[in-house]
Design brief:
The chain has 296 residues and is α+β, with helices and mostly antiparallel strands. Helix content is 21%, strand content 31%. It is globular and about 60 Å long.
């Protein structure tokens, strides 16, 4: 990692530092009183350190889906999302996806039913969702654990099969392939042995989902990182195609987010956020803001 000056960050002086400070100071985060000059506040307390130079950081996007669903199974709503089983341990890997579904190991742990196995799978990838219940009202679900098996991308699997080149792979391509090959969907999903469990969340309508740091995520200001490289709560400057340079906050993690310069940008909730998140796959630059005096 290389120590930088603030002048080494093109666009730093034009960012909305108040928005970054608001994300940094969500309830449970380090501060509570808004400074009169948020940019000066960050500059007085942090030093910029380059985690990955231009072209070596890899940024993708994620979001909180908003989907129709129901509390009870029906012909329309037939794909469940589950609460964790009682024998799920924090360290020992549990059964893989194919075994869980083939043996129906989570019977009785259903929280809600969605319209398709693919949408239930994609909700697991995102880690949170809003469900517009057929019975009325909205259910918010958040991440509650996983089975400890490695995550494998079904997009990468379709690239391997020649469905599309890496730069052409997207959620839209995956959905189209699944619609064209309904009998092969289960086999494709089972190439990812990882399985995610959910919990019900009592959150205000306008608030984002809760990330791994334990605070609500802010659209285009919250970033999922590898916490072994960038600790949660760290302000992070990102510069990549498709998004103006900006200060974000490391507030979440993901099983596919590993290594220096790997970042997953939270785009918000709903369909528009999903389209933007699905289109983000870019190489750029990542700079962490270390507390003043910490060695790089």
């Amino acid at each position: 990692m290389r120590a930088l000056r603030w002048s080494d960050l093109p666009g730093w002086d034009r960012d909305d530092h108040a928005a970054a400070w608001a994300a940094f100071s969500m309830p449970g985060a380090p501060s509570a009183d808004p400074p009169s000059d948020p940019r000066a506040w960050f500059e007085a307390r942090f030093d910029p350190v380059e985690v990955a130079p231009a072209g070596q950081a890899h940024f993708t996007g994620y979001y909180e889906p908003e989907l129709p669903g129901a509390r009870a199974r029906s012909a329309r709503f037939c794909a469940p999302l589950h609460a964790p089983p009682p024998d799920l341990g924090p360290e020992t890997p549990w059964h893989d996806r194919a075994t869980i579904l083939r043996a129906d190991l989570l019977a009785g742990h259903e929280l809600v039913w969605l319209e398709s196995p693919l949408e239930a799978f994609l909700a697991q990838v995102q880690g949170s969702l809003r469900v517009r219940l057929q019975e009325g009202g909205t259910l918010r679900l958040g991440y509650a654990g996983r089975n400890g098996r490695p995550y494998r991308s079904i997009g990468a699997e379709l690239v391997r099969r020649g469905v599309a080149p890496p730069e052409g792979m997207s959620i839209a391509v995956i959905r189209r392939w699944c619609a064209d090959n309904p009998g092969a969907v289960a086999e494709l999903l089972n190439t990812n042995p990882s399985f995610v469990f959910f919990r019900e969340c009592d959150l205000p309508e306008g608030q984002g989902p809760i990330g791994a740091q334990g605070v609500a995520l802010s659209a285009l200001r919250s970033l999922a990182v590898d916490p072994g490289i960038v600790p949660l709560g760290t302000p992070v400057w990102i510069d990549c195609p498709g998004l103006s340079p900006r200060l974000m906050v490391a507030q979440d993690t993901g099983s596919a987010i590993r290594g220096a310069g790997r970042g997953d940008i939270f785009f918000g909730s709903g369909d528009a956020a999903g389209l933007a998140a699905g289109a983000m796959n870019a190489r750029g630059r990542m700079v962490a803001l270390w507390p003043r005096g910490r060695a790089a």
